[in-house]
Amino acid sequence: MSQKIKLGMVGGGQGAFIGAVHRIASRIDDRYELVAGAFSSNPEKSIASGKELGISEDRNYSNYEEMVEQESIREDKIDVVAIVTPNHMHHPISMSFMNKGFNIICDKPLAMNLKECEELVQTRKENDVIFALTHNYTGYPMIRQARAMCDQGDLGKIRVIQTEYAQDWLTQDLENQQDSGGNKQASWRTDPSQSGGGGCIGDIGTHAFNLLRFITRLQPHQISAELTSFVSGRKLDDNAQISLRLNGGAKASIWSSQIAPGNENHLQIRIYGEKGGLEWCQEDPNYLYFTQYGHPKQKITRGGAGALSAANEVSRIPPGHPEGYLEGFANIYSDVANALMDKKNNEYDSSKYHYPTVEDGLEGIRFIERSIASSNSDSSWINF
After folding, report:
1. What is the pLDDT of residues 307-330, one digit of tens each?
2. Which of 14, 42, 114, 136, by CA, is between 20 and 30 Å from 51?
3. Nearest CA-CA partner of 205 in 376, 378, 372
4. 283-289 contacts, C-beta under 8 A, 24 or more apart
5. In sequence order, which residues have a C-beta less than 8 Å from that of residue 267 and are 6 or more positions away?
6. Whole-structure pTM value
7. pLDDT tens, position by position, 75-105
8. Contacting residues for 64 by C-beta, under 8 A, at least 6 apart
9. Which strand (E) or helix (H) includes residue 299?
């Protein structure tokens, strides 16, 4: 593409957090231009949001149904749409755009249940479109480094994986505290009708699960989970403790919590194999720690000595200058841009790109549903 990729957006209007993140990420490498959108389920708010973002009047839509119909008949139609709405709208919006041949960048989790996910997977195949899911931590350079090290056998056969994602922002009943404005972010994330069956496990536990799969490429075959709602009256879990049996004999544990005081966004993963171990923490993301058995622990710096091409290819600035959350999103957007360009030039090869796919999203929802099923059966082991 000689010109910038034409990006549309559904959701992410006034007062939304994640929409602004996507817009920043799309601009970091200067490969996209936001040209159209339906930014809210409230028509007036949607139009007002588009005006603030500088969207031209004829492409500033009051709802996504209008957007998909009007964009599909334009000669300069969008190349891809970013879907940044609450969870319950991911499926209908994605279906509408895919059925008109549009490529998708969708926030996670993919949908509300496995049936919806399976329909999305099938529709993507039928329409031959690109579908990326923004599990943004997969875009961090040191996560790409960890994946490459596992691939080349630096750890040997993997035995144990421990992953956790701990926050504290839902320690109290924030969703119902009217003096705080009812907290929009807390309200929809704890509402089953908007968030789905998983609360904490769906919001952040899926990130831990996705990271485990992305780095090691291992798949679970059995799961045991205990999901708890510690805050009285909360409809969805705010703490999850999960064990996984993985193909190849490895064992994994995931702790996901939004009621752990002192934790902001403490996503951490530790991987141990027969030859060595890796440790990484999202709150200090530019460093990966590798220990070869019998040797001192080694600190690998993003962009520094020991960094592999898999990491350096998605690193923009010299070591010592922090890169993180926004750049992780930007790397996924750049991966998608490469795929879109290759597809337009008939050079598309799915093995070349690292962005999470609609199939990864399906596995994330399977993780949620199997965890709920295990928890409801007194944490019994069930097949994944």
Report:
1. 999 999 999 999 999 999 999 999
2. 136
3. 372
4. 285/140, 285/142, 285/322, 285/323, 285/324, 286/141, 286/142, 286/319, 286/322, 286/323, 286/324, 287/142, 288/142, 288/145, 288/146
5. 137, 164, 165, 204, 207, 208, 211, 281, 282, 283
6. 0.94
7. 999 999 999 999 999 999 999 999 999 999 9
8. 10, 38, 93, 96
9. strand 298-301
